[in-house]
Amino acid sequence: MTGVSLGLRTSGSYGSLQQQIQNGGLQPQNLYIPRRPSKTSLNGSKEKERFFTKIFRFLSRKKVGMLILVVFALLAFMTGFFTVNKEVDLNSSGLGFDARYPNKSYGVPSLFPGEESMQSNSNFMNNKIIVCDENTSWAPSPFDASATVNTSSAASFLPHPCRDFAFPPPPPGDRRRIGPRPCPVCYVPVEQAVARKPRFSSASPVLRHLTYFSEENPLKSEPHGGSEFGGYPSLKERNDSFNIKESMSVHCGFVKGCRPGYQTGFDIDVADLRVLAQSYEVIVASAIFGNYDVIQQPRNIGETARNNVPFFMFIDEETEAYMKNTSLSENEKQVGLWRIIVVRNVPYADARRNGKVPKLLLHRLFPNTRYSIWIDGKLQLVVDPYQILERFLWRQNATFAISRHYTRFDVFEEAEANKAAGKYDNVSIDHQIEFYKQEGLTPYTAAKLPITSDVPEGCVIIREHIAITNLFSCLWFNEVDRFTARDQLSFSTVRDKIVSQVNWSINMFLDCERRNFVIQAYHRDLLERRAHMAAVVRHYSPPPPPPAATIVVEKFVPKTRPIRHGRDKRPGPRRRRKVVPKHRENSFI
Q1: Is the peptide bond preceding residue 34 cis, with omega within 30 degrees of 0?
Q2: Alpha carbon of 144 to those of 369, 370, 401: distances in Å?
Q3: Which of the 8 DSSP states describes residue 204?
Q4: Which residue, among 389, 387, 400, 403, has the nearest Cα to 504 in the 3D structure?
C-alpha cells in the first residue's frame, strides 16, 4: 500500500517502536508506516451517511418543515420579549444615564498642526477634544405607525388640487388696519397631505456624514470667539467649516458632551431626554424664556396630527415658576397640546439668545426626527402640520423653508432698522456688518435672482433633518453665537457660502403666506400693559362736577329822593333863562 490512509498521523515522533522492530528494525528512510483502515470505521462512516440521508428525507416533508418554522418563530418572539423586559428593567433600575446610554465618540489625538507642542501647557492637557458621532438617521417607530401611508398609491400620481390656484392680488388698503396681512394659501386636505409625504429621506448634496466637536474645557483664544457653550471656535475653524466635504466635523453648541442636554449647559432632565431621543416623523417645537411670552394653543389640528405629531415647548426656570404660580395646568408636563420641557443651567444671560438654541439646533435635541416645524413662542399655529409640510417642503421639493421679511430684503437696511429700534447694541451690529463687508457682502439686487431676499422673517422654520440642513443650522448658530443674536443679519452669509459650493437652495416664501398659518400675538409685557390700561379705562369714572357757586342777585330798588321840609329843603338847581342878544332880536323883526 503506497498511499496514506485516513487516520495516519504525519509526525514521525508519534510512531510505534514495536511495529518498527517487527518490520525488521529501524528504517530511517521509511518512518511513515501506513495504517490499514479497520472494518468498524468503514461501517461507521456508512451508517453516518445513511443516518444523514434519513434526516434529510424526514425534513423534506411539509409538516415537519412547518413545525420547524413555528419553533423558530417562537424562539424569535421569546428573544424579543426578554430583550424588551431587560430594557424596561434597565430604565427602572438605579443606573445612571451614562450606564444606560453609551457614548458614541472617538478620541482625536491631534486635530490641528502643532497641537503636540501646545500640550505641554497644563490647560491644554486638561482639554480633551472628542468628536461626537450622533445617530441622525430617521427610522419609523410605533409612535407614527398610524400616520404611515403608502405613497405609491394613486394620490401621488393624480393632478395636484392646487395646480390651478392663482395667487390673488393684494387686498385693498384699509385705514383701520395698517401693516402686513395674510394672503390666501392653497392647502390640500390633511389626508392627501399625509399621502403625499415622501417615502424616503431627501439626498444630501456632497455632505454625507456630519459629526460635532466636544471639548471638556473649551478655551477662548480670540476676543470675538463666541461662548463656552459654543466652544469658542477660532476664525480659522469658522472658515474651514464652510468648506463642504463628504465628511465633516464642526462646532454646533453643546460642546461639553456628546449628549446634548446632559451636563452640557442647556440641561434637560433625563426622563425628558429619553422622550426627545425617540423616533419621530414630524414634531412641532417652540420656546419661551424669561417669561417673555404667553403659551398659545394650536387650533385646527387634525386627528392624525394629534395622535402622531408631538408639540414640544422649551421653557426656563423663570417661566416654570410663573406657570406654577398662575396654575396654568394641573399637569406640569402638559399644557394643552404642548409637552413642557424645562431647561436648567441656561448658557446665556440674555433670554432671547437662549431661545436660539432650540430654534437652530433642533436636530441635535431630536437626533431621530425626520421633519420639524419651529414657531416662536408668541405665535399661534392655526393650520395642520401635515398641510404646512406639504405646501412648503414636499410640493416644492425643498428641505428647508423660511419666510422672507415683508418689507426689507437687504442686510444693510435690516441692520439700520435694528439700530433705530434699539434691538441690539449698535457697536456690535456695526462690527458684524463691517466683518461681512470685508468678506464680500454686498447690498441685495436683482442680480441675485432666483434668490428673492437676503433677510428672513425667522419666527417660523420648516425643515427636513438631513446632513446639509443640519450643517446649515450649525453654522448659522455659530454666527449667532459669535456675533449678535439678531439671526436675520447672519442668515444670508451662511446661505450664500453653502449654496456657492453645493446644489442646494432654501425656499423663501412670502411673509403673507406665513401669516396665513400662524397668528402673531404680543409679548407678555405689552399684553399686561394693555390689560392694565384697559382695566383703568373700564373702571374710570369722571370726577363729580364742583358744587355750583351761590350767586346772590340783589333786587334793584330805584333810589327816591327824600322829601325835605322847612330848613332841610334845599334849593335845587335853577334853570337859567337863555338870554338872547339884542342884535339877534332885531334880526328877527
Answers
A1: no
A2: 11, 11, 23
A3: P
A4: 400
Provide CB contacts within 8 A for 222, sequence distance 6+. 232, 234, 235
240: amino acid identity, one letter: D
Nearest partner of 298 among 316, 285, 281, judged by Cα = 285
Residue type (1 letter), 145? A
Main-chain phi, psi angles of 353, to 5 degrees: -70, -35
Q: What's phi and psi for 228, nearest 5 deg? A: -65, -35
Q: What is the mean pLDDT of residues 427-431?
A: 96
Q: Cα dihedral sign for 332, 337, 343, 349?
A: negative
Residue scoring higher pLDDT (542 or 14): 542
Query: Cβ of 86: how many Cβ atoms within 10 Å?
Result: 10
The set of residues, in sequence order, having a beta carbon less than 8 Å from that of 370 and lying 6+ positions away, is: 138, 201, 280, 281, 282, 464, 465
- Chain-centroid distance of CA 67 in Å reads 52
Chain segment 300-342, per-residue pLDDT in tens: 999 999 999 999 999 999 999 998 888 666 677 999 999 999 9
The pTM for the full model equals: 0.69
Q: Where are the beta strands (DSSP E) in 289-352?
A: 311-315, 334-335, 338-344
Side chain identity at residue 287, one-letter code: A
CA distances (Å), 366 to each of 153, 234, 257, 263, 530, in order? 30, 27, 15, 17, 38
β-pairing, 334-335 with 311-315? unpaired
Among candidates 464, 306, 298, 303, which has minimal Cα distance to 383?
Answer: 298
Grid cell of 123 as nine digits: 490647560
List, for residues 89-131, the tens digit of each pLDDT value.
Answer: 434 444 344 444 444 443 333 333 333 333 334 343 455 677 8
Residue 197's CB is within 10 A of a number of other CB atoms, namely 20
- The answer to whether the CB of 412 falls within 8 A of the CB of 553 is no
Query: Alpha-carbon distance 303 to 194, whole Å?
Result: 12
Give the phi and the psi of residue 187 in degrees, each rounded to 5. -105, 145
DSSP states of 530-574: HHHHHHHHHT--PPPPPPPPP---PPP----PPP--GGG----PP
| CA separation for the pair 499, 505 (Å, rounded) | 7
In the beta sheet, which residues pair with residue 576? none
Whether 471 has a pLDDT exceeding 90, the answer reads yes
Whole-number pLDDT of residue 253 = 96
Q: What cell does 444 get?
A: 441685495
Beta strand 280-288 with 209-215: parallel, antiparallel or unpaired?
A: unpaired
Q: Report residue 434 as a C-alpha cell.
A: 463691517
What whole-number distance in Å separates Cα of residue 397 and Cα of residue 389? Answer: 11
Helix (H) or strand (E) holding 370: strand 369-375
- Nine-digit cell at 173? 388698503
Q: And the C-alpha cell for 49?
A: 451517511
- The counts of H helices and E strands in the chain are 22, 15
Cell readout for 358 is 432650540
Contact 436, 411 (CB under 8 A): yes
**Which residue is it, cell 334880526?**
587
What pLDDT shows up at residue 39? 47
Distance of CA 294 to the CA centre of its chain: 19
> What grid cell was written down for 327?
396654575
